[in-house]
Design brief:
about 200 residues; mainly alpha; rod-shaped; Conserved oligomeric Golgi complex subunit 8; COG8
């Protein structure tokens, strides 16, 4: 079958003259040059488009490269940012707890205010002659001194010290009572209050 195809071609070649073959060769060469010229013109006319496409490709590659580097940097810093956020939350909780403590301390109904007012109440009791109350307050100061955990607080220690120091002043006031006239009931009261200091000293 292959031989059958080649026979017509060989017959055509035999029938074509040498001069005609030369003309065909020239025509083919001319067609080839025309095609090459058209390709050159097409490339020249569309050079700007090719150049723009090349620049766009370069810019896109550069942009995506920057985005990739930025993403890698964020990934590397994600743990650092997470730790910083957790630290912030801890500090925020501490600040909230401190603020709540301050608000409670500023509340006049807080027992702390009552405790802080005891030294001034002690002075009032001594000057007004309420020796039983004054003794109870100074005795309370002694009890505070024995509370090792409470006395670590500077405010409580200061109150306790003031109440204990007032014992000497209270005892002096009781002794001074004997320097003036006293009725029997008042004398017994002063003696009883004085004896408390020696019993619970």
């Amino acid at each position: 079958m292959e031989n059958d195809i080649q026979l017509p071609i060989e017959n055509d070649i035999r029938t074509i003259g040498l001069e005609q073959m030369r003309r065909e060769r020239v025509l083919l060469a001319s067609e080839l040059k025309s095609i090459e010229s058209q390709i050159s013109d097409l490339a020249f006319k569309n050079y700007g488009t090719y150049a723009d496409a090349g620049r766009a490709t370069h810019d896109c590659s550069k942009t995506f490269g920057g985005m990739r580097e930025g993403t890698e940097d964020l990934s590397a810093r994600s743990e650092e940012l997470t730790n910083a956020f957790q630290d912030f939350r801890k500090k925020a909780k501490l600040l909230a707890a401190e603020q709540e403590l301050i608000q409670k301390a500023l509340d006049k109904s807080n027992p702390l205010w009552e405790l802080l007012s005891l030294p001034s109440k002690m002075d009032v009791c001594i000057r007004a002659g309420y020796y039983d109350l004054a003794y109870s307050l100074t005795n309370y100061g002694m009890q505070l001194h024995q509370q090792s955990q409470l006395i670590k607080n500077p405010l409580i220690k200061k109150v306790s010290d003031r109440l204990v120091e007032a014992r000497s002043y209270l005892l002096e006031m009781l002794f001074n009572k004997f320097s003036g006239p006293l009725d029997l009931a008042e004398s017994i009261k002063v003696v009883n209050n004085t004896n408390k200091f020696w019993i619970f000293r």
